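To the wet lab folks,

You asked to see what we're planning to order before we commit. Fair enough. Below is the target structure as tokens, and below that is the sequence we designed to fit it. If anything looks off to you, flag it before the synthesis order goes out.
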């Protein structure tokens, strides 16, 4: 047989151990509902709860749109700051840089789901 080529490489941290848990129907439904609200499948949700004690929910559609808009604004401000720097408009650069830092702070808060 020839060796398998291509595809996804094997995970370096393969999960080899299994832990069982018994739940009644209500408990399972509640956990599945919470996982769905967080935007995760059941096992990643449970693993997050067990290992970290909390799960950070993924952004909903509105949150993703806001995040994309903020990213676009931050990029525009960064480009303007570079132009101001190159042409010598120091005062304008200071104002743009302050706004850029505020946007970067908001983006960091929004993307803290990692």
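Sequence we intend to order:
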């Amino acid at each position: 047989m020839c060796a398998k080529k291509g595809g996804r490489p094997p995970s370096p941290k393969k999960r080899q151990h299994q832990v069982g848990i018994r739940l009644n129907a209500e408990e399972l439904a509640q956990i599945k509902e919470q996982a769905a609200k967080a935007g995760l499948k059941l096992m990643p949700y449970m693993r997050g709860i067990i290992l970290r004690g909390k799960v950070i929910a993924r952004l909903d559609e509105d949150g993703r749109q806001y995040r994309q808009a903020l990213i676009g604004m931050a990029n525009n401000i960064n480009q303007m700051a570079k132009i101001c720097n190159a042409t010598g408009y120091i005062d304008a650069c200071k104002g743009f840089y302050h706004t850029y830092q505020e946007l970067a702070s908001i983006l960091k808060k929004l993307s803290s789901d990692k």
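Structural context that might help your review: The helical segments are 25-38, 42-52, 61-87, 90-110. The chain has two domains: 24-58, 61-110.

Thanks,
Computational group
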